[in-house]
Design brief:
The complex is a heterodimer of chains A (246) and B (239). With 246 residues, chain A is mostly helical. Chain A contains ten helices and no strands. With 239 residues, chain B is α/β, with parallel strands linked by helices. The chains are: A mainly alpha (246), B alpha/beta (239). The complex binds adenosine-5'-diphosphate and magnesium ion (MG). Magnesium ion binds next to α1 of chain B.
Chain lengths: 246, 239
């Protein structure tokens, strides 16, 4: 706790600098500081409480709530895509459940809250970002390439078939951030899990081992989420008569 | 009702975003001929054509295809029988052959690419060519070939020569006439060019501001306009 109190000096430094330069954001920094303190403390206590609940049902419930929030967020970023919430929910859930399932089955992790909640959170957050990205791309591709889609419809192609090349391009593009991350990890950027473990005093090699597991886990869950998402993505853009919606 | 009618439209209207784009269109499309849809830009020609293969549906009125209400026909079957060539070719990534086989692969139909290229007048050597290397004229021919490969009963063409030079324009016109003769195709050809309508069509309708202004032999329509709006269109006052 004394560590935490001492570290507020850093905020004071920032505020003083901002005030000297008259940037007018001093108040905002202070507000943000208080806000983040309250939020994170609340999360900390909530997690402590949840970690105390041994029953796996509660953890599953919490993960489900996280999936709902993530799906809702992904939907918000794909306003032009009807049915985005359902698609997001199903795909994020499949990616998470499959990946955590495999990790549990292989004994990589056990069904304790200290694994399930943080790893689940990472999976859900990453899947959400990848999915939002691919929704955005599909929506804008469809807007820009109505002609290509309708040319396929004119030849009797189903909506799924007609939109396939667009979806494929979008999904492919949405993999790029993840692939880039794998290229620079540990060199340009120290990933979160590893940094956290090092701070907590873990052996660097242990920290790396966990980080690699986390990366592999995210590769699998993101891939599954995106592919499941892609299977359903076409629906919202068409009506029953195989017409592209306006 | 006309026995030879492929399409029969009665009181067809369409609105988009509260704007009336087509108003009470009555029209019969006869089998085995080129029917022209003539009219100035923005008059509703494309909108009308898109109703015939159900890329869009009318807001009111009825469209019959071969005697049956359009909405009672399976969309996929309809679009295989009623091919459409869009104003811009929109070819799929890949080779000319990929494009020609696209529909047939989709529906498990057998087709001889050489036969199609011969029919449409594409050099067989072009089949392996990537579509990104084609000229606009060649692309439009490929998009016609890809529709013809499905052996449609009807071919809808939306200003297929709009991006083409005079030579390619004549080629495409001759191709269309040839297909109608050789295959007994029924063809609906949209154009805003009066001369093109004269070269191609027997009968046709003139659409202005979403309304049908004329429906008769093109030659008669052009030589003795029955409506003041027709006269203005022929004088080039409407573009
Ligand atoms: N999806 C749409 N929404 C609103 N207005 C449209 C839509 N499609 C076409 N229009 C309008 O309908 C009119 C007719 O368009 P169109 O059928 O493309 O004419 P043409 O093919 O004769 O040039 C134009 O005024 C056009 O702006
Ligand atoms: Mg048009």
């Amino acid at each position: 706790m004394s560590q935490l109190i001492a570290s507020t000096v850093l905020i004071v430094i920032a505020v003083v600098l901002v005030e000297i330069k008259r940037l007018g954001v001093g108040r905002d920094i202070l507000k943000g500081t208080v806000r983040s303190f309250i939020q994170l403390m609340a999360v900390g206590f909530a997690l402590k409480f949840i970690f105390g609940l041994e029953k796996v049902q509660y953890q599953v419930l919490l993960l489900l709530v996280m999936v709902v929030v993530a799906a809702y967020t992904a939907r918000g970023r794909a306003k032009s895509m009807p049915g985005a919430f359902k698609v997001s929910f199903v795909s994020i859930l499949s990616g998470g459940a499959a990946t955590l399932g495999v990790m549990l089955a292989l004994g990589i992790i056990d069904a304790s809250p200290s694994y399930l909640i943080p790893l689940g959170g990472m999976i859900i957050g990453n899947s959400m970002n990848a999915l939002s990205l691919s929704f955005e791309r599909v929506s804008s591709e469809v807007k820009q390439r109505r002609g290509e889609v309708e040319a396929a419809l004119c030849l009797g192609a189903s909506p799924q078939k007609a939109i396939e090349p667009l979806v494929r391009r979008s999904v492919k593009a949405s993999f790029i951030p993840m692939l880039n991350l794998m290229k620079i990890v540990g060199i340009v950027q120290m990933p979160g899990a590893m940094t956290g473990m090092l701070l907590a005093g873990a052996d660097p090699v242990d920290a790396v081992r966990i980080q690699l597991v986390v990366i592999y886990m995210l590769v699998a869950s993101t891939t599954i989420t995106m592919l499941v998402g892609a299977t359903f993505t076409y629906r919202g853009f068409f009506n029953r008569a195989w017409q592209l919606r306006a | 009702m006309d026995q030879d009618a492929v399409f029969h439209l009665s009181q067809v209207s369409m609105a988009r975003n509260g704007k009336e784009i087509l108003k009470n269109i009555d029209w019969t499309v006869p089998a085995g001929r080129v029917s022209i849809v003539l009219g100035p830009t923005g008059s509703g020609k494309t909108s009308l054509l898109r109703l015939l293969n159900r890329l869009d549906d009318p807001s009111s009125g009825e469209i019959r295809y071969m005697g049956a209400p359009l909405s009672s026909i399976d969309v996929r079957d309809l679009r295989v029988e009623v091919g459409m060539v869009l104003q811009q070719p929109f070819l799929f990534e890949g080779t000319v052959l990929d494009n020609i086989l696209y529909g047939c692969r989709l529906h498990g139909m057998d087709v001889d690419p050489a036969e199609i290229t011969a029919l449409v007048g594409i050099d067989e050597a072009m089949l392996r060519q990537d579509v990104s290397t084609l000229s606009v004229g060649q692309s439009q021919k490929v998009s016609i070939a890809r529709a013809v490969a499905l052996r449609p009963r009807v071919l809808l063409l939306d200003e297929p020569t709009s991006g083409l030079d005079p030579t390619s324009t004549v080629q495409v016109e001759e191709l269309v006439s040839g297909l109608v003769r050789a295959l007994g195709l029924t063809c609906v050809f949209v154009t805003h060019r009066i001369e093109q309508a004269r070269r191609l069509g027997h009968r046709g309708i003139l659409i202005i501001d979403g309304s049908r202004v004329e429906e008769r032999e093109i030659e008669d329509m052009l030589s003795s306009p029955a409506d003041e709006r027709t006269r203005r269109f022929l004088n080039g006052e409407l573009r």
